[in-house]
Design brief:
Layout (H helix, E strand, L loop, with lengths): L9 H10 L14 H4 L11 H8 L5 E7 L5 H16 L7 E7 L10 H6 L2 H5 L41 H6 L3 E5 H14 L6 H10 L6 E3 L2 H10 L4 E5 L1
Parallel strand pairs: 1-2, 1-5, 2-3, 3-4
Helix pairs in contact: 8-9
């Protein structure tokens, strides 16, 4: 079995990871105000707790939690390698593996679609360059499959197969679930309002972000809580991707 091809995405991942710690630059907005603090945590009736519990208690015999804190494609390379190794190296059928990536901190920006990247200038803030335009990314470059999920072969040894595609879209097609963080999303809403001098309420920006998450993304009340509950209640194995 050949090692997984790191694909060309890695050529710009290092730049993205370094720059998108600018959700480290996002922290320059300072401490949250009392009005913002009131929005920091959602109660059980304000988010889809039932869907989360269903995911936590899935009957899949192999359940893996990825705690993703670094922005960039490197985290998805790790997830791709995990899926390939468990499936082909340990002989576990793909439908018996449930991978979940909890996106928190700088990684939070990766759960939003192209319209949010363009509207709120995530690429410029985070110094993420679009490899097609060579300019600050106005789209989520980590999401789309280069082949639109159409592969000429399903042979693992062939780099043209899905098993060598570490895009979010391809990994979701293989069963990956993404969980975002309400607290981080609220913080990003406040950050872009201040950085871009927007006049609309932070809540309006927050709602805009939540309405434009990638397909299949779940926003949990808090990422740290989701991580703990997946481990203790769902018995997921834990892997930090930093």
């Amino acid at each position: 079995m050949k090692p997984t091809n790191p694909i060309s995405r890695r050529s710009f991942v290092s730049t993205a990871a370094a720059g998108m710690a600018a959700l480290g630059a996002f922290s320059s907005v300072g401490p949250l105000t009392p009005s913002a603090n009131a929005q920091e945590l959602e109660t059980t009736s304000q988010w889809d707790l039932a869907a989360f519990n269903k995911l936590a208690h899935t009957s899949a015999p192999v359940k893996q939690l990825f705690d993703v804190t670094v922005a960039g494609g490197g985290a998805f390379d790790h997830i791709q390698n995990y899926l390939n190794s468990v499936h082909f190296g340990f002989g576990i059928p793909g439908n018996q593996i449930q991978p979940v990536a909890v996106m928190r901190g700088p990684a939070s920006a990766l759960i939003f679609d192209d319209s949010m990247w363009k509207k709120y200038q995530f690429g410029a803030f985070a110094n993420v360059t679009d490899p097609k335009t060579k300019k600050p990314a106005e789209r989520n470059i980590f999401y789309p499959s280069k082949t639109n999920l159409k592969y000429p072969t399903d042979n693992f040894e062939d780099p043209r197969s899905i098993y060598h595609d570490s895009s979010i879209q391809a990994l979701q097609h293989r069963g990956l679930r993404l969980i975002g963080c309400h607290i981080a999303t609220w913080f990003i809403a406040r950050m872009v309002a201040e950085k871009l001098h927007l006049k609309q309420p932070h809540k309006e920006i927050y709602d805009d972000l939540v309405a434009h998450t990638l397909p299949g993304v779940m926003i949990a009340a808090a990422a740290v809580g989701a991580i703990g509950m997946l481990q203790t209640q769902g018995h997921y194995s834990y892997l930090y991707v930093g």
